[in-house]
């Protein structure tokens, strides 16, 4: 999928009918909460002080975190940020930024959500 396709898909699936920053933030919150429920495998793709690149981790069911503190927050700097996801690696738990993960799940919703988010945060 090229950049224009990603942009179009995000506009059609995530931020459709959003008119301001708060609506966009809420739309992302709903979209990610629906798609990142349940545990799934992921690979570390960015240098991280806790877990080496290319290691496979298990992203834990983070739905409770989304309910308690919200997934995405709008900042006045015109940037979005996402909470860290809790992962398990070598019988330990870590908080890892979603941008440092590549989903290995066969669930298309999970893969799509992470790809869209990573595109949104870097390109939109």
UniProtKB/TrEMBL annotation:
InterPro entries: Uncharacterised_Ca-bd_CcbP (IPR020994). It comes from the Archaea. Pfam families: Calci_bind_CcbP. This is Calcium binding protein. It comes from Methanobrevibacter cuticularis.
């Amino acid at each position: 999928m090229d950049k224009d396709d990603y942009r179009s898909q995000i506009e059609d699936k995530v931020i459709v009918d959003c008119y301001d920053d708060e609506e966009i933030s809420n739309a992302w919150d709903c979209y990610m909460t629906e798609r990142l429920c349940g545990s799934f495998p992921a690979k570390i793709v960015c240098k991280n002080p806790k877990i080496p690149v290319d290691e496979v981790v298990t992203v834990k069911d983070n739905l409770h975190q989304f309910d308690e503190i919200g997934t995405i927050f709008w900042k006045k700097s015109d940037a979005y940020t996402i909470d860290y996801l809790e992962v398990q690696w070598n019988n330990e738990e870590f908080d890892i930024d979603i941008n440092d993960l590549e989903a290995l799940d066969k669930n298309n919703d999970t893969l799509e959500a992470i790809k869209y988010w990573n595109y949104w945060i870097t390109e939109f």
